[in-house]
UniProtKB/TrEMBL annotation:
Residues 1-16 form the signal peptide. It comes from Eleginops maclovinus. Coiled coil: none annotated. InterPro entries: Dup_hybrid_motif, LECT2, LECT2_chordata. This is Leukocyte cell-derived chemotaxin-2. Belongs to the LECT2/MIM-1 family. GO terms for molecular function: metal ion binding.
Amino acid sequence: MRRVFVLLAVLCVCDGVRFGQLCSGNSANSQRTSDKWGRGNYGARRGDRLHKGLDIVCSDGSIVYAPFDVTLNGRVTVYNDPTKAAINSGINLSGQGLCFKLFYVQPDRTSGMVRAGQRLGVMLPMQSVYPGITSHIHVQMCDRSDPTSHF
Ligand SMILES: *[C@@H]1O[C@H](CO)[C@@H](O)[C@H](O)[C@H]1NC(C)=O
Ligand SMILES: [Zn+2]
């Protein structure tokens, strides 16, 4: 009986996956609200498109951490625009049954696994491309669904 109870408790954890700390200096995973470049919420307007991710505050040069145990699925190219080359990198990750990408991160490695709370890489110099923006990591699910409930 007791064994069955423990098993059920473990299964239920999968339901509400929460991201652990992503960026040094932001232990609460605070979200970008509003600045002169726009808003950080999922679904915010970006000209004639919608923002398909959630922005988590992260100062340029900060250390970026694995939010839980993750597998590295390779580097992501964020832009085609050469004027944004300084921040044109990210990483595709999976873990806890989720597949997601982190934009504006220079990854230390692009394959293998990283444990929860261990270093993934460094936040790129976003102020050099978007002066005055709230520097942030963009979290985007691989299926473009809304990640907000995981924060
Ligand atoms: C991320 O990596 C996964 C696993 O390799 C892959 O299936 C998926 O297509 C990649 N997603 C994107 C959007 O790049
Ligand atoms: Zn974003």
